[in-house]
Amino acid sequence: MGLVPxxxxxxxHRSGLxxxxxxxxxxxNVRTYVVGxxxxxxxxxxxxxxxxxxxxxGGRLFYGLPYFKSKMTFERRGRLRYGLARTCDGxxxxxxxxxxxxxxxxxxxxxxxxxxxxxxLYAMKHARLYSGRVWHKPYEVAACDSQCESVxxxxxxxxxxxxxxxxSHFSPGVDVEVWPLRPV
Length: 184
Known about the structure:
This protein is mainly beta. The chain is built from three helices and 13 strands, in the order E-E-E-H-E-E-E-E-H-E-E-E-E-H-E-E.
């Protein structure tokens, strides 16, 4: 299971149009790593928190994903600090992490490659399983030290969660394209 906080920057519709109030926002997702019925690896989202109401509505409507509107913060003072407070139920999360200066491209066969090089997302919509193609250049990642002051979104899925992650990675990010869902 992964708890993944990040910034979404310069988001556009596939047509090239900027989305009002949804082109720059913060997001945190709780995910697990799955293999679909056809044997292809992908990501399953337990929850996605976003600071953009439009992103939440679009993610729920078009992708059937469990998005929640959250007040989110991001600070960079030596360490990176991501915070969220879910609007509907007060679920909170605070993550402190470092931004290493030496991320490298993931190597096929490594755990890092297995975790980040996923090119499908899976979702249930109208009681049917769908997948959506995801494309991005290979991630550059580096192991880092992180601490979770609170992990509310994960606690909603798992009851016994500690404040120190089993492992933690940082990536400066990549450009990502997501295609519409198709039935599996």
